Amino acid sequence: MTSTANDVIAIPPTPPAAADRNGAAGGSESIRAINEAVQQASAWVPLLKSEIGRVIIGQGHLVDRLLVGLLTGGHILLEGLPGLAKTMAVKTLAAAISTDFRRIQFTPDMLPADIIGTEIYNPRDTSFEVKQGPIFASMILADEINRAPSKVQSALLEAMQEKQVTIGETSFALPELFMVLATQNPIEQEGTYPLPEAQVDRFMLKVVVDYPSMEEERMILDSVDQIDAPLHVRPVLSPADILSAREAVQSVYIDDRIKDYIVSLVYATREPGHFNLELDDYIETGASPRATINLKVAARAIAFLSGRGYVIPDDVKSCALDIMRHRIRISYEAEAEAVSSEDIIRKILDTVPVP
After folding, report:
1. Considering only CA atoms, which of 83, 114, 48, 287 is closest in space to residue 183?
2. Which residue of 152, 158, 333, 353 shows the fewest CB atoms closer than 10 Å?
3. N- to C-terminal Cα distance for the chain?
């Protein structure tokens, strides 16, 4: 089943019993009500994309995935060569939604305290005071995250999972609107450290940022005179608007057949033989249950960004690569035959029956 943004998609009829199980009692009538509510709640999406587009030329996939992370509270790992507007895109998004932004440049000599903060002794009253680190912001850019050793990278684990930071014996809550966006260079390995598996799994999406097209690069060239000008981004939303939109995303209807499809995609990475896929020799470990949860959450966000109140299979398929590419560990045989995790995911998407 394929679709485009301009397709007219009929809302599938849903038996009342199935609708009740998904929190949409009343069948297709209730789904229509959700669809109308989502269309109203997502009216700001074109405005936000337009404001970001004033600064970021091209990179539509990157912008879309940043909005998915924003709507779901998921963290994003950005992988791409230098100069592809990864940092600029995050900074522009933060300015457009009027939230605080911190950029942390990861280096080999960093300490965990450089991120989360530490306790400082105050000799005046002979006590320790907490000095909070840069992690205490709504949007965090961990630039070149793989340049810091594992002990520094792991300092983000509690913040990413629990949305709190523990300094000494005290835990401090992070802002309700909190995102970690990390960048890494895919080709330069000298002086870098691989991310721990536990940390990689906590990134909802791994987005591969590619070169712009020839037309887009020409547009970049035409705007090169403005490259040193101050960044003026007009705030079009507030953090409260984003939190309200998250509630609308959670109301997006997802049919039981779509849920079964999500589970099948993830299960196929662990037991490919169950779907007559000859991939056992290529997969060391399959995707974790976080992949299942994130596929559902991201599919809802993609439907919301499209102005739909219901999820279709293409929503799941469109985000499968970004959600599972960093959660599948390939074998040495796969590496020897130049088979990547993306190749495996595409094979699974082509084989698992679509509802």
Report:
1. 83
2. 353
3. 8
The topology under which CATH files domain 16-25+253-351 is Helicase, Ruva Protein; domain 3 (1.10.8)
User: Using an 8 Å Cβ cutoff, are 321 and 345 in contact?
Assistant: yes
DSSP letters spanning 205-231: EEEEE-PPPHHHHHHHHHTGGGTTS--
CB under 8 A, 24+ apart: contacts of 332-339:
333/281, 333/282, 334/281, 334/282, 334/283, 337/282, 339/282
Check if 16-25+253-351 and 56-228 are the same fold.
no
56-228 to CATH, choices 3.40.50.300, 3.90.79.10, 3.10.150.10, 3.30.70.260: 3.40.50.300
Q: Which of 184-193, 248-257, 275-284, 300-309 comes out lowest in average pLDDT?
A: 184-193
Residue 51 burial by CB count (10 A; 0-12/13-18/19+): exposed, middle or buried?
buried
Q: Using an 8 Å Cβ cutoff, are 164 and 52 in contact?
A: no
Half-sphere exposure of 9 (CA within 13 A, CB side): 22
Q: What is the largest CA-CA distance in the chain?
A: 71
Question: Could you state, in order of their start, the residue ranges of all structural domains in the chain?
Answer: 16-25+253-351, 56-228
- CA dist 214 and 206 (Å) reads 25
d(CA 283, CA 330): 5
CB atoms closer than 10 angstroms to residue 303: 24
pTM above 0.90, yes or no: no
Tens of pLDDT along 11-26? Answer: 343 333 334 444 444 5
